[in-house]
Design goal:
The protein is mainly alpha-helical. The chain is 60% helix and 0% strand. The longest helix has 21 residues. The two termini are 25 Å apart.
């Protein structure tokens, strides 16, 4: 399925938010298990 540039940017933004949330939740090395 082709993704438009806009869709790809939206997904990247979402991924960044998720990763940031995980980093905040699991400070230090712990969160790396979830990536």
């Amino acid at each position: 399925m082709e993704m438009t540039v806009r869709e790809r940017l939206e997904k990247q933004k979402l991924d960044k938010i998720i990763i940031t949330t995980l980093k905040n939740k699991f400070k230090g090395n712990e969160y790396e298990k979830y990536i």
